[in-house]
Amino acid sequence: DIQYIHCVSANAINNIELVMPTGKSVICMGEPAMIKNLKVGDVIQLTRIGFARVDKIDKKKKYIRLYFAHQ
């Protein structure tokens, strides 16, 4: 496996939970604009990973839960 480094801004949201089909969760980081523009039910593309559906957004805690959809 090749390891990737993806640079994000210093204000990055570091409380993004990506739930995989196995049920395992992975904690991710994302750009701050994500929490402003996303709505529950949106399907988004994750760089080098695939697509995910937005399940929960908590703007106070800057928390987003995504469910992996497909590559």
The best one-word shape is: globular
Query: How far apart, in Å, are the first and last alpha carbons?
Result: 17 Å
Structural class: mainly beta
Mean pLDDT: 87
Rg (CA only): 12 Å
Contiguous low-pLDDT stretches (5 residues minimum) are none
Oligomer: single chain
| Elements, N to C (H/E) | EEHEEE
Major pleated sheet: 5 strands, mixed
**Beta-strand level of the residues, as a percent range?**
over 45%
Helical content (DSSP H or I, runs of 4+) = under 10%
Strand order within the widest sheet?
A: 2-1-5-4-3
Got a strand count?
Answer: 5
- Count helical runs: 1
What keyword list fits this structure?
five-stranded mixed β-sheet, single chain, 1 helix, 5 strands, 71 residues, mainly beta
Task: Briefly say what this structure is.
With 71 residues, the protein is mainly β. The protein has one helix at 33-37, and strands at 13-19, 25-30, 43-46, 50-58, 63-70. It is built from one helix and five strands; from the N terminus they run ββαβββ.
